[in-house]
């Protein structure tokens, strides 16, 4: 077999895999029962906070994990547990990252994990919904609601496995969690934007 033939065959397989990886349904009831874990390579959490009213400073968290057991016959009782490493905060400035993760802000050495545990799920026919849960951050646990879009369920790359995708937003006040450093230079309101893909074990 010539190199050209091998190359064409590889490209066709890649193209077919990409097509097969597209969501096949946005109906949560079409997602099969099973244990799902977050795909860390395709998950992100971004936080935005006002800087003196001039801009919304943006930071990203690079280490996220999570899992849930899903049963379409009892989808509303699904309980997901998501964890974020506060020391993984990334602003593009390593020195500032260490400052944010330090004792003045996140105090990641004392509180090494941010955790969100779902308590209730509300879904609509358009794939939109709300997830209520308990957020533990900086040693404080408070209720938080997420506005969520279910992007769909479908096969993974090359048609292998099952993959679910979600996008969402939330809003918190950092003072609710005891993080009040350099107020009011840094705003109290924090907007959270997340993207997450899960794969079935």
TrEMBL record:
SUPFAM superfamilies, A to Z: YceI-like
InterPro entries in the cross-refs: Lipid/polyisoprenoid-bd_YceI, TTHA0802/YceI-like_sf
Signal peptide range: 1-21
Keywords: Signal
Protein name: Polyisoprenoid-binding protein YceI
Domain Lipid/polyisoprenoid-binding YceI-like: 35-199
One Pfam match: YceI
């Amino acid at each position: 077999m010539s190199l050209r033939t091998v190359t064409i065959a590889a490209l066709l397989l890649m193209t077919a895999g990409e097509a097969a990886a597209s969501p096949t349904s946005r109906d949560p009831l079409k997602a099969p029962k099973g244990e799902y874990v977050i795909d860390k390579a395709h998950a992100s959490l971004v936080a935005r906070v006002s800087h003196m009213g001039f801009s919304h400073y943006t930071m990203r968290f690079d280490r996220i994990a999570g899992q849930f057991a899903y049963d379409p016959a009892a989808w509303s009782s699904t309980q997901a547990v998501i964890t974020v490493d506060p020391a993984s905060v990334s602003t593009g400035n390593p020195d500032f990252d260490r400052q944010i993760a330090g004792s003045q802000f996140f105090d990641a050495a004392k509180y090494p994990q941010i955790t969100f545990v779902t308590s209730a799920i509300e879904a609509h026919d358009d794939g939109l919904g709300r997830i209520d849960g308990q957020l533990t951050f900086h040693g404080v646990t408070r209720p938080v609601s997420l506005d969520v879009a279910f992007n769909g369920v479908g096969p993974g790359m090359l048609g292998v496995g099952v993959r679910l995708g979600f996008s969402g937003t939330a809003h918190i006040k950092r003072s609710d969690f005891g993080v009040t450093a350099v107020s009011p230079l840094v705003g109290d309101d924090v907007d959270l934007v997340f993207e997450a893909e899960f794969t079935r074990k």
